[in-house]
């Protein structure tokens, strides 16, 4: 009887079996030495001090010596530490006598299953603690925790953490386990463990800084806003205590925008906030066409009005779409077609 | 060195596994309870004592003999530093089995079994893997109530198997079957305790023998 698992000579065609390129430890060590030597050479070439040559200096030097017009930053010549270039590899999993190090080695996905095992153990501990508390009638009430500021790790981030491929099902199972752990009344004990798998997400609104009102020589409050639409760029200055006068590029709005539709666009932010006759506006606009300039001024004035108005009304404006930049631009014409979408007339024969 | 390996084989019960369990322990842990008459497997009939109110009762005298043989065999394997792999596809006891394996210093697999784990090991793990020398099945069925694939694969790869077979399981390809209940938590805890104690005992004995040899 031939013992199949000892016949290594049979597996001659298994080049792809070892997976993606295997980088041995010796190879990576050599690369690191070469990198350090190369860093010193580069510093000498640039006339800098080799001891205090940082990564930013290296990037600048390479960009100077090898200028490249390629669009993708990753495709340009780069010189980075080998640990950043070569992805982390799994070292050999078993010792000299052949026994694997990890007790779940034979499952195939040892890090993922050991993670599940640990999380389940934490769950059991929390349940036991809860039972103890219930026996003494000391069970704490669960307060609703605000989950807005955090999110779970994505599948790709988890894969990077575990150095193993995961399937969608396995990832969702792990997240469900974590959620179950968090939902328990005494789940706060394991908060530190759960925090390892969650990330902070700054709430979108908090990012946008609303500028405070400025006061000019007359003592009138004003604020500026900028807006773009298609190719038009506009800046608007909105003054308080006004009569609803609007000036564009030094020309009155009735003369600059003869069409009613454009004037309605300009009026929309003020109408929405019920401040039609209360503000004056002076704007400058360039580029684009009639409608694009109107849209640009509308966005600029809405941004300026944020400073005059409460946070709730800012949220209402945002939901109405007054503060959103309109990303629509002219689509390019493609070869083989008459326009961006229009195809040439199809002839049957 | 030769004497170290050959001496245990001359005794019928070198590690004295008989004292680890008694008939009363098995009965208290409800090892004798089987499934209903309709679930009975044909090849389990020799191991069944009788049937009460449609539920099969397993013969504990036979279980004692088989358990003693199986524990003796695992002790010998552990003494000779073999790799032991615990397998169970029961979700209830997955954590228990994995913790038992970790405490023994052996290995466990209580998750979905990928097809080529044993038969295609060089491709899946890399060349130079050492396969397990013993598989212990704490429940020989998988989640669809079919015999676990590892039983057949171990037979293909010449790896001996020890397994707890319930009244609805097929004991054919398992080298050391142990007829007994695999559904009750008490029964599973008993099996885990027994295997853990035998393996630790055997490893300690091996360490002691090596120390004696070195002193000489």
From TrEMBL, chain A:
Keywords assigned: Mitochondrion, Ribonucleoprotein, Ribosomal protein, Transit peptide
Major location category of this protein: mitochondrion
Alphabetical list of PROSITE patterns matching this protein: RIBOSOMAL_S9
Gene Ontology molecular functions: RNA binding; structural constituent of ribosome
Compartments it resides in: Mitochondrion
Gene Ontology cellular component terms for the protein in this record: mitochondrial inner membrane; mitochondrial small ribosomal subunit
Residue span of region Disordered: 330-349
InterPro entries reported in the protein's UniProt record: Ribosomal_Su5_D2-typ_SF, Ribosomal_uS9, Ribosomal_uS9_CS, Ribsml_uS5_D2-typ_fold_subgr
GO biological process, one term: translation
Family classification: Belongs to the universal ribosomal protein uS9 family.
Matching PANTHER family: RIBOSOMAL PROTEIN S9 (PTHR21569), SMALL RIBOSOMAL SUBUNIT PROTEIN US9M (PTHR21569:SF1)
Name of this protein: Small ribosomal subunit protein uS9m
Organism: Spheniscus mendiculus
TrEMBL record, chain B:
Any matching Pfam family: Ribosomal_S2
Nucleotide-binding in keyword set: no
Main location, first listed in the record: mitochondrion
InterPro entries xrefs: Ribosomal_uS2, Ribosomal_uS2_bac/mit/plastid, Ribosomal_uS2_CS, Ribosomal_uS2_flav_dom_sf
Single GO molecular function: structural constituent of ribosome
Gene Ontology cellular component terms for the protein in this record: mitochondrial inner membrane; mitochondrial small ribosomal subunit
Top-level taxon: Eukaryota
Record's subcellular location: Mitochondrion
GO biological process, one term: translation
Record bears the keyword Cytoplasm: no
This protein's UniProt keywords: Mitochondrion, Ribonucleoprotein, Ribosomal protein
Task of the protein: Required for mitoribosome formation and stability, and mitochondrial translation.
PANTHER family membership: 30S RIBOSOMAL PROTEIN S2 PROKARYOTIC AND ORGANELLAR, SMALL RIBOSOMAL SUBUNIT PROTEIN US2M
Family note: Belongs to the universal ribosomal protein uS2 family.
Name assigned to this protein: Small ribosomal subunit protein uS2m
Name of the coding gene: MRPS2
């Amino acid at each position: 009887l031939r013992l199949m698992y000892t016949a290594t000579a049979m597996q001659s065609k298994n080049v792809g079996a070892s997976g993606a390129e295997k980088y041995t430890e010796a190879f990576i060590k050599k690369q690191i030495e070469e990198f350090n030597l190369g860093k010193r050479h580069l510093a000498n070439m640039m006339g800098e001090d080799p001891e205090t040559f940082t990564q930013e200096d290296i990037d600048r030097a390479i960009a100077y010596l090898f200028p490249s017009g390629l669009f993708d930053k990753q495709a340009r010549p780069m010189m980075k530490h080998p640990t950043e270039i070569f992805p982390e590899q799994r070292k050999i999993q078993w010792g000299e006598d052949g026994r694997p190090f990890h007790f779940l080695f034979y499952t195939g996905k040892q890090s993922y299953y050991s993670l599940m095992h640990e999380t389940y153990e934490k769950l059991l501990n929390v349940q036991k603690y809860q039972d103890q508390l219930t026996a003494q009638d000391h069970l704490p009430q669960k307060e609703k925790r605000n989950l807005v500021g955090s999110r779970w790790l994505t599948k790709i981030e988890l894969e990077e953490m575990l150095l193993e491929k995961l399937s969608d099902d396995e990832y969702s199972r792990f997240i469900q386990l974590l959620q179950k752990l968090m939902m328990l009344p005494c789940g706060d004990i394991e908060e530190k463990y759960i925090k390892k798998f969650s990330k902070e997400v700054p709430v979108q609104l908090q990012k946008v800084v609303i500028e405070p009102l400025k006061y000019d020589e007359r003592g009138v409050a004003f604020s500026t806003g900028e807006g773009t639409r298609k190719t038009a760029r506009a800046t608007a200055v909105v003054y308080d205590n006004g009569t609803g006068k609007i000036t564009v590029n030094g020309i009155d709005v009735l003369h600059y925008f003869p069409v009613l539709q454009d004037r309605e666009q300009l009026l929309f932010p003020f109408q929405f906030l019920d401040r039609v006759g209360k503000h004056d506006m002076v704007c400058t606009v360039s580029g684009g066409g009639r409608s694009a300039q109107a849209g640009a001024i509308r966005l600029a004035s809405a941004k300026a009005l944020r400073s005059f108005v409460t946070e709730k009304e800012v949220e209402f404006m945002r939901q109405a779409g007054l503060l959103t930049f309109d990303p629509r631009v002219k689509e390019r014409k493609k070869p083989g077609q008459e326009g961006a979408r229009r195809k040439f007339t199809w002839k049957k024969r | 060195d030769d004497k170290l390996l050959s001496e245990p084989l001359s005794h019928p019960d070198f590690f004295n596994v008989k004292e680890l369990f008694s008939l009363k322990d098995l009965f208290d842990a409800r090892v004798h309870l089987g499934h209903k008459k309709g679930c009975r497997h044909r090849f389990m009939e020799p191991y069944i004592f009788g049937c009460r109110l449609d539920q099969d009762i397993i013969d504990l005298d036979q279980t004692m003999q088989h358990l003693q043989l199986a524990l003796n065999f695992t002790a010998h394997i552990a003494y000779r530093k073999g790799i032991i792999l615990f397998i169970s596809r029961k979700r209830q006891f997955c954590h228990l089995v994995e913790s038992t394996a970790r405490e023994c210093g052996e290995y466990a697999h209580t998750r979905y079994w990928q097809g080529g784990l044993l038969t295609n090991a060089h491709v899946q793990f890399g060349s130079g893997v050492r396969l397990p020398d013993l598989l212990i099945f704490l429940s020989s069925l998988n989640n669809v109530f079919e015999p676990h694939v590892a039983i057949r694969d171990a037979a293909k790869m010449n790896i001996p198997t020890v397994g707890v077979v319930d009244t609805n399981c097929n004991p054919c390809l398992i080298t050391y079957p142990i007829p007994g209940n695999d559904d009750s938590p008490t029964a599973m805890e008993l099996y885990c305790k027994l295997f853990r104690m035998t393996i630790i005992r055997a490893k300690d004995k091996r360490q002691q023998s090596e120390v004696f040899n070195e002193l000489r």
